[in-house]
Amino acid sequence: MREIGVGLLGLGVVGSEVAHILLQRSERLSEQVGASVTLKKALVRDLAKRRTYPFPPELLTVNVDEIFNDPSIDIVIELVGGEQPALDYIRRAITGDKHVVTANKEVIAKNGYRLLSLATQHEVDLRYEASVCSGIPVLSPLQQDLAANEISAIRAIVNGTTNYILTKMAREDLPYEQALREAQELGYAEPDPTNDVEGIDAAYKLAILASLAFHTPVRPSEVSREGISNLDPKDFTYAHELGYAVKLLAIAKQRGETLEARVHPALTPLDTQLATVDGVYNAVQVEGDLVGTLVFYGRGAGGRPTSSTVVADVLTIARNIAMGGIIKPRMELNRRIPIAPMFEIVTRYYFRLSVADQPGVLAQIARVLGDHRISISSVIQKELDEAAQTAQIVILTHPSVEQSVQSAVAELAALPLVNRVGALIRVEH
Ligand code: NAP
Ligand code: HSE
Predict the structure, then answer these.
(1) Which of 95, 357, 384, 408 has a CA positioned 20 to 30 A from the CA of residue 133?
(2) Both 282 and 404 in a single domain?
(3) Ligand 1 neighbourhood includes 424 CB (under 6 angstroms)
(4) What's the rounded Cα separation, in Å, for the pair 192 and 189?
(5) Neighbouring C-beta atoms of residue 4, cutoff 10 Å
């Protein structure tokens, strides 16, 4: 039986699980592949660190050259994380004619197109299924099983940390700060939660999903982004009364000759599957012209779920090597679809205004919206604070242009009878 050597960069949350499976299930995996798949070395920073499993000491190294210079290593798995040195390591593996598997969304979202070109030149494979939604296989279905479809839209919950926080806020009426603290205590949110709560992580994942679904390179910097830190638990209650859940959605949609790519909190109808995705779970809804609507759902983080897709990518490459097949990374990004500017998008909007409880206030609000050609679908007055003589006005609009809505909001905020625009949330049907 031919031996296929594997080198692992990183032995942390995901790397430890990957190493454990490659060692423990070696016989079964090798049978599936038709060649022996052997983990040769694992790169760490600290040899003395306590690991999740008792790995043989000779497996570990702090010298990356032991992996790159070993001709018996055919596949390098990058699980170091972050942009550098991970990017350099991936480049070095490819230029050394080694196949690469990675779970690194930041590297792939920012550099995937160039890395795939480099891999093509070197006739090696570069696979990255785990970079989006961890254990949920969604990139491979987009590239293979759905290849006959024209995809018109992707709507997804791709960040488990923010979905956990939003679920807490909705169910327990918690303020954002408290829900975030709980997520940090449970180890879901990082001590610095910026990447998750500001939608940066979701924008990386959407850039990867949209590039594959629409066959066009989408850079993370082209994804419009708004985080969850300004959300108020009041809006979860009001949205629910109106028939919606509040979710951080990653949305990519074809609109005419352009593509919308955006990450922001969105009112999501309660009768849709995305509205029912709670806690740290992820879901990706894909609309294809042949297949209709599909939803991929599961655990979007964690060492074991992520190891499932990482090891599957290793096995795919190993099988190709064993069969002597010509291995080429799939890179059908042969379209160039411009990204639509955010101010052009058309959707429905939810507003909450804190206003003086005086005659004529609704008429003033309606006039401003009318001047900006924004049509009201429903309006509700909530929570009269008698002592302060203020009320909350909740407005749902018909589809309106983002630029008009932003101008109207600025004008509304300047009205003497409006104390504050408490919320402006887009609605996604
Ligand atoms: P992690 O727990 O922080 O592990 C990182 C590992 O890389 C550690 O073993 C560390 O060594 C090693 N390392 C870091 N910098 C290094 C350097 N400069 N040189 C050598 N070794 C270095 O990270 P993780 O959670 O496993 O994540 C790995 C990748 O998977 C990331 O790209 C992440 O985005 C992705 N991912 C993670 C999850 C998840 O749930 N965790 C889900 C999907 C995707 P020491 O152990 O010696 O410190
Ligand atoms: N921080 C990410 C999340 C981990 O919360 O979904 C998986 O990429």
Answers:
(1) 95
(2) no
(3) no
(4) 8
(5) 23
The answer on 148 and 119 residing in a single domain is: no
173 and 90 part of one domain = no
- Taken in order 46, 115, 294, 145, the sign of the CA dihedral is negative
Report yes or no on 226 lying in a domain. yes
Contact 251/428 with Cβ under 8 angstroms?
Answer: yes
Q: What is the pLDDT along the chain (429 residues), one digit of tens a residue?
A: 899 999 999 999 999 999 999 999 999 999 999 999 999 999 999 999 999 999 999 999 999 999 999 999 999 999 999 999 999 999 999 999 999 999 999 999 999 999 999 999 999 999 999 999 999 999 999 999 999 999 999 999 999 999 999 999 999 999 999 999 999 999 999 999 999 999 999 999 999 999 999 999 999 999 999 999 999 999 999 999 999 999 999 999 999 999 999 999 999 999 999 999 999 999 999 999 999 999 999 999 999 999 999 999 999 999 999 998 766 666 578 899 999 999 999 999 999 999 998 899 999 999 999 999 999 999 999 877 777 788 999 999 999 999 999 999 999 999 999 999 999 999 999
| Structural domain boundaries, residue 13 | 3-133+303-322
For ligand 1, is residue 11 a contact (CB within 6 Å)? yes
173 and 128 housed in the same domain:
no
Strands 99-102 and 126-127: parallel
Indicate whether residue 306 lines ligand 2 (CB < 6 A).
no
Pick from 192, 196, 228 the residue to mutate for probing ligand 2's pocket: most ligand atoms within 8 Å of its CB.
196
